[in-house]
Amino acid sequence: MIKIGDTLPATTLIEFNAVETEGCPIGPAPVDTASATAGKTIAVFALPGAFTPTCSAKHVPGYVEHADALKSAGVDEIWCISVNDAFVMGAWAKDQQTAGKVRMLGDGSADFAKATGLTLDLTARGMGLRSNRYSMLVKNGVVTSLNVEAPGKFEVSDAETLLAQAKEG
Fold first, then answer.
1. Can you give the pTM of this predicted structure?
2. Any idea what the CATH number is for the domain that residue 32 is in?
């Protein structure tokens, strides 16, 4: 499992862009984790699935609500990562009103989840291999804070916890 001091795995996540911007064509676009984190501080949180109860009611809304405070604490970007395809993540972004606050990144084949060692097997619940629920602060590609939830819990990966860690330095 990834730990504090480790470099974030070099994988590709996929982001759905509903509007064309400079460097971001309409539709799914690859996000290379190594280049996207270079020289930046990224607040990353991951969760088992888009549109799931805790993820939609608490996890994403907390980061949307605290986006400005996180940015004031030195965070350049906030990433939400889930083992879903980019189209689902794009629809969820619209539903959760994350535009300009949280980048919703799909890890459709769980490559990032596997590379971090933070997988959650929900096969018995019909969801297959997913990501564990966690948050981390990544500075220039290196993990500086990591908060992994116990199974079925939502206690340490929330926006308030990561905001406090970002303020600490």
1. 0.93
2. 3.40.30.10
